[in-house]
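Comment on this:
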Amino acid sequence: MKELVEVVAKALVDNPDEVVVTEKSEGRNTVIELHVAASDMGKVIGKQGRIAKAIRSVVKAASSKDNKRVDVEIV
C-alpha cells in the first residue's frame, strides 16, 4: 500500500523528490502518512478534498482483498 500511495502522489506533485510516505501497522489497522511540500499540498488534496478522497478510495479498495484496514493521512 505504501508504494501505491507513493506512486500516485509523485504523479500529482511538482516536487516528487519531497514526497515521503511512512507506514505504521497496529494489528489489522495500518496508517499511511503522506508528507509533501507545502506548495504541493493543494494538488494532493484537490478542490473540496476530491483528490484526497480518491486516493483513500483506491487504497481502501486495494487493501480490502488483504482483509486489512488502511487509513491515509495527508500531513
Observations:
- The chain has one domain: 2-74.
